[in-house]
Inverse folding.
C-alpha cells in the first residue's frame, strides 16, 4: 500500500526510536509492571516523535491525522503490544474537538506541570457501556458548591493520568446540551478513587475504574460546549475509534511478521513449515485481512482529515471491522506457531490478547453495526462510486 511522504517520515522516526529503546525482554517487563518506565517517556518527548502528540501551541506538528494514526500503528507493530502513547494521542484528538479557548486553557495547565498534554477519558460506565444517553454519573448543585457522584470503568491510563475527562448528567450546567456536561477533573481531588482493572491483555494501557464520591467541582473544570456537546462527542468517539483501529493494525502486522518468519525458519520432518499447503492458506488469508485492515484504517483517518460527511460511517465501519479482523490474524498466527504460540515464549499470545480488547473499546462490534446501518440508510440514493 502506497505511503505518503509524511507516513514514511513517521515510520523512519519510529524505527529509529524503537531500535534504541525497545526489545522483547523490556516489553515483557513493562507489561508486567503495567506501564512504560519514565526514561522511555522522557526519551519519546525528547525526540522528534513528540511533535505528533503535542498541540501546535506547545511545539506540536501541523500534520494530518493520518500521520498520527501511522505513528501509533508503527510503534505498536514494533512492540507487539498496545502502548500507552495511544492515550496521549487520544487526548490530543479529543482536544481538537473542543472550542479553541478550552483547548488553550487545558494545554497551558497540563503542559506547564508535566510537559505532556495527557488526560484519561471517563465516558464508559458499568451499566451503560458507551451509551451516552444511559450515563448515571451526576452533577448536582448544593448550597456550598457543585458536586460529582458516579462511577466510570474501562478508563485507559486511569491508573496514572493526573486528570480525567468526565461525561456526566447535569440538569443545571448542561441545559444547552440535553442535560449533559463535560468536566476535566484532577484525579487527586478529594472523593476520587482509582481501582486498577485486571484486564487479560493491554497491560500497558493501565485501565482502571474511577469512583466519584461527592467530589466538589471547581466551575473552571467544566468544558464549555455551548450546545454543541453532542457534535463534540460524536467527533471524539470517531477519532478514538480510528486510534483503536491503528493499534489493531499494528498488532495485526506484528502477528503477520512473526508468523511469516516462523513459517520460513521452522521445519517439520525436514520440510519448511511454509511449504505446507495449510500454512500457505493461513498466510494468504492473513495477508488479505491485513490489507483490508490498513485500507479501512487509513480511509477513516483521511475522512477525519477532510472532515468528510462520511466521517461517522467511515470510522464506525473501520471500528466494526478492523479489530475483529486483527483478532483473526492474531489467532491464525498463534496457530502457525502451534503449542509454543499459546505460551508467553512468543509475542503472538500477547498480541492475540491485546487485539481482543479492541473489539470492546470505544464501542463494541455490535454497537458499531447499528451505527453503520443508520449511516448507510441515510446515504440511500446518494451513493457515488
Amino acid at each position: 500500500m502506497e505511503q505518503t511522504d509524511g507516513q514514511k517520515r513517521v515510520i523512519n522516526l519510529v524505527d529509529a526510536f524503537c531500535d534504541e529503546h525497545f526489545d522483547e525482554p523490556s516489553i515483557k517487563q513493562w507489561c508486567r509492571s503495567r506501564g512504560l518506565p519514565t526514561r522511555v517517556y522522557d526519551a519519546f518527548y525528547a525526540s522528534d516523535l513528540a511533535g505528533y502528540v503535542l498541540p501546535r501551541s506547545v511545539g506540536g506538528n501541523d500534520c494530518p491525522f493520518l500521520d498520527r494514526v501511522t505513528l501509533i500503528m508503527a510503534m505498536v507493530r514494533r512492540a507487539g503490544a498496545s502502548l500507552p502513547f495511544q492515550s496521549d494521542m487520544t487526548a490530543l484528538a479529543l482536544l481538537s474537538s473542543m472550542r479553541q479557548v478550552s483547548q488553550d486553557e487545558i494545554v497551558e495547565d497540563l503542559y506547564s506541570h508535566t510537559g505532556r498534554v495527557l488526560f484519561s477519558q471517563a465516558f464508559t460506565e458499568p451499566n451503560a457501556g458507551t451509551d451516552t444517553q444511559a450515563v448515571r454519573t451526576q452533577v448536582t448543585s448544593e448550597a456550598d458548591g457543585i458536586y460529582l457522584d458516579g462511577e466510570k470503568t474501562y478508563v485507559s491510563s486511569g491508573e496514572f493520568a493526573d486528570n480525567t475527562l468526565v461525561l456526566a448528567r447535569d440538569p443545571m450546567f448542561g441545559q444547552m446540551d440535553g442535560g449533559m456536561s463535560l468536566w476535566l477533573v484532577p484525579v487527586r481531588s478529594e472523593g476520587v478513587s482509582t481501582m486498577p482493572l485486571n484486564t487479560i491483555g493491554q497491560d500497558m494501557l493501565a485501565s482502571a475504574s474511577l469512583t466519584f464520591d461527592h467530589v466538589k467541582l471547581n466551575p473552571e473544570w467544566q468544558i464549555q460546549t455551548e450546545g454543541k456537546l453532542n457534535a463534540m462527542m460524536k467527533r471524539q468517539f470517531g477519532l478514538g475509534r480510528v486510534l483503536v483501529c491503528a493499534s489493531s493494525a499494528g498488532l495485526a502486522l506484528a502477528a503477520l511478521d512473526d508468523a511469516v518468519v516462523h513459517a520460513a525458519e521452522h521445519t517439520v520432518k525436514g520440510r519448511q513449515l511454509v511449504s505446507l499447503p495449510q500454512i500457505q492458506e493461513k498466510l494468504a488469508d492473513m495477508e488479505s485481512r491485513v490489507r483490508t485492515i490498513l485500507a479501512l484504517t487509513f480511509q477513516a483517518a483521511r475522512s477525519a482529515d477532510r472532515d468528510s460527511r462520511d466521517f461517522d460511517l467511515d470510522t464506525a465501519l473501520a471500528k466494526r471491522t478492523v479489530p475483529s479482523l486483527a483478532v483473526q490474524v492474531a489467532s491464525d498466527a498463534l496457530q502457525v506457531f502451534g503449542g509454543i504460540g499459546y505460551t508467553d515464549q512468543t509475542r503472538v499470545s500477547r498480541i492475540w490478547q491485546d487485539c481482543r480488547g479492541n473489539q470492546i473499546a470505544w464501542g463494541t462490534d455490535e454497537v458499531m453495526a447499528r451505527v453503520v446501518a443508520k449511516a448507510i440508510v441515510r446515504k440511500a440514493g446518494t451513493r457515488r462510486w
